[in-house]
Amino acid sequence: MHDLRYLRSHRDEVEKGFAKKHAKVDLDAFYRLEEERLARLAEVEEGKRRRNEASQEIGRLKKQGQDASALLAEMKRVGDDLTEKERLLDLIESRVQEMVRWMPNFPHETVPEGADASANIEVARWGDVPKLGFEPRPHWEVAERLGWIDFTRGPKIAGSGFPLFVGDGARFVRALIQLMIDLHLARHAYTLVHPPILVKSDCLEGTGQLPKLADDMYRVTDEDLWLNPTAEVPVTNIFRDEVLEPHQVPTRFVAYCPSFRKEAGAYGKDTRGIIRLHQFDKVELVKFVHPERSYDEHESLRADVEDVLQALEIPYRVMLLCGGDMSFAAAKCYDFEAFAAGEKRWLEVSSCSNFEQFQARRAGIRFRREEGAKPEYVATLNASGLALPRIYVALLENNQQPDGSLTVPQALSPYLGGARVMHPAAG
Fold this sequence. Notes:
Elements: H1 4-9, H2 11-20, H3 27-63, H4 69-101, E1 121-126, H5 139-146, H6 153-158, H7 168-188, E2 191-193, E3 198-199, H8 201-207, E4 226-227, H9 232-236, E5 243-244, E6 251-256, E7 259-260, E8 279-280, E9 282-289, H10 294-311, E10 316-320, E11 332-340, E12 345-354, H11 358-363, E13 366-367, E14 376-377, E15 379-387, H12 388-398, E16 406-407, E17 421-422
């Protein structure tokens, strides 16, 4: 959410920011409406002033035993006129707020120009693309040989896009989740939370998924509840409509939470395997920090994500997103892409975003710099640390062996009973 005063007084910067993000915002209509709102507001304030003066004068006249009927009649006319003006002002303010709801965050000055992913810039790379010495199989074939994913029975339960992991395949999911959580707790000093899966509309408004992404989310019929599209939503909203005390900033949370998306508009893409799912597991990192520290914290958050990928020995690259490829709420974003040998391509496994104070304004999250100080909006950041399906894909495809077995990264081995190689299920 944007500050109306900033929008009014920085029109050039506003236009440039939305243009860089390739956002279609009718600013002419907004500024006309905002001008009308201010004019109506002035009328209402003047009406209140006149009503208050008349009320005081009526009180004085009555106290002196004088006739106040003419003034009473005038005050009634002023009151009736004020009621109508307040009604019109409420309508205009609602329209203004609705327009602002659809305005995305402004991109940071370091964000490159560009309309889509082709303009993203690679800023880092780690690890070597694996050379297996044989033609790598796609992950679904590796999983079927190992007996880890049941691609037939999963859709029977909930339809396509809802995977059924079995046996060691399910153990592998749990091992990855626990490794990531343990790493972020031990090395990066996050606090573990286990949030609800369902979220209210206000929560989605706060983080910026609503109103824009309503068609890509699952809603509970007849209730104001949605299946969370990303664990960022419930975790960021832990502090919704609160004022954090000085000792609470910074706060860093890590959470595991299954997430759900319809993948609207993605029909026909990546239909085989688990690259594009309606239900997926994810370990999420969320930070609440001082606004002036947000970009230092963003780089620190990026390092936390890289730490997991390196522990899992997965080759990856870091992409700085251009203005047109960023999310609605992000001011700056790095995407992490892991290389998958069977797919022979890079797969996005994490987005690492700085929202500055945009989400906090929408969600009403403020803080005090010192005891008794005036509250300010906090800065929020988040990243996947990491999203499992494509990490799972990369590990299956990069670590497969000709005999159908799978090598296990050293860091993951303790979570799988010390195994360094996993073999196909018997039978």
